[in-house]
Design brief:
By secondary structure, the protein is an alpha+beta fold. The chain has one domain: Winged helix-like DNA-binding domain superfamily/Winged helix DNA-binding domain (Arc Repressor Mutant, subunit A, Orthogonal Bundle). It has helices at 9-31, 40-49, 55-62, 66-78, 100-120, 126-140; strands at residues 2-3, 6-7, 53-54, 82-87, 90-98. The strands form two sheets. It has a three-stranded antiparallel sheet with strand order 3-5-4. Strands 1-2 form a two-stranded antiparallel ribbon. Helix 1 (9-31) crosses helix 5 (100-120), helix 2 crosses helix 5 (100-120) and helix 3 packs across helix 4. The two termini are 32 Å apart.
């Protein structure tokens, strides 16, 4: 479908949104037994790359509000996956660190992510998987920068 000679945005953005929602629903179901709720695993994924990130940085990276970030971190703290510590250079801020239990969740989360990816790409050839990966990275690269904000962007709830 085309609109004014251009690709209809729904042809690309619709499937991306559907994959994202399906991914979240899958992860919620798979991680429910571990007390990790919707979107919380994403905070753990960031901490696996860089432990001790500030709450504000986590919110920026994940493009969520500070309030949503605080709620997710509180839930993860309550379940024993993370702990918060005052930032020595800015006493108003907190840094978030993985507990041993949080570190142990890494392999479980990775296993669930691989399972979802296997479902998503099950009808792809190896060559199609690689092309898909490269095109996704090309499309998303500017959004990986936590400082990137479109002029009309507002943080998500």
């Amino acid at each position: 479908m085309e609109i004014s000679g251009e690709t209809d945005p729904r042809e690309i953005l619709g499937p991306i949104a559907h994959i994202y929602r399906s991914h979240l629903a899958y992860m919620v179901k798979e991680l429910e037994a571990y007390g990790v709720g919707s979107g919380q695993f994403e905070f753990l994924l960031i901490l696996y790359h860089k432990d001790g990130v500030s709450q504000e940085t986590l919110a920026k990276i994940l493009k969520v509000s500070k309030a949503k970030s605080a709620r997710a971190i509180q839930s993860l703290e309550k379940e024993g996956y993370v702990y918060r510590q005052r930032d020595e250079s800015d006493l108003r801020a907190y840094r978030v660190y993985l507990t041993e239990k949080g570190k142990e969740m890494r392999d479980i989360i990775l296993e669930k992510l691989i399972s979802f990816m296997d479902i998503l790409l099950s009808d792809f050839t190896l060559e199609e998987r690689e092309i898909f990966r490269l095109l996704l990275h090309k499309a998303a690269i500017r959004f990986f920068d936590p400082e990137f904000e479109h002029p009309t962007d507002t943080p998500m709830n």
